[in-house]
Amino acid sequence: MNSKLRITMLVENTVRRTGLLAEHGLSGWIETNGHAVLFDTGQGHILAPNAQRLQVDLARADAIVLSHGHSDHTGALRYVFQLADHARVFLHPDAMQPRYSVHGGQATEIGLPALTHGELKREQHRLVWTVQPTEVAPGIFATGAIPRSNNFEDTGGDFYLDAAGRHPDPIMDDQAIYVATDAGIVVILGCAHAGVVNTLQYVRSLTGRPIVAVIGGMHLVNASAVRITNTIAALREMGVNLISPCHCTGARATAALWTAFPDQIADGCVGTRWTFPRQ
User: Which of 34, 38, 169, 185 is the most exposed place for a label (fewest CB within 10 A)?
Assistant: First the structure.
């Protein structure tokens, strides 16, 4: 039976349609074969109104997947957790730990919101730890922890496990989603703190199939020219057909990607929908 994979961007940094809202964050709605997965939740301010405007029923979510434990991806988790009361939450254990961004001696707490943390602990029977690749719904997989195999990608910022900035945060909970389609594998990124190239190479090794599309945050906002050049070279070598850099990719890296791949790049703002045929 023929079916489709459909991805709808519910939360992202940019918007180009009247009636929708944007914020610094990311959330995607993934549907295939009658199943639905919510990937991240944004900061929490705009997920609900955007979902309503786009006619996405969040209560239908079979699963909620967290790409990592930063607040711009988990802010509306408590709301969705209560709304989709049958859905399980898939996350790496490290997503629960305290997180900080430290700049000039000033620390900002950026981890999972405290209320969310407490509620998740009370309903641990709904949590699934994704240390390894995990099927979160039929045909939809979370990567679990991603090996850091190259020497040019890092976490992309000043992230720490303590407010004093003494213990760097490797963000080992970073994960992506991948789905097989007729043409190849579609990969949806949260922030790609493990590195977009590391992520795609890992998915390719897991599936043995080509990557046909990559959509989401690539965390190249602080990337050096060398890292951007190496990323472009790797995407070219992999022959990715659709590249949609969102959220934390950064203006300079996004411009470089548009220049390098004018025919493969696609906008990924709030309200964008992608459809891929799959058996």
Answer: 34
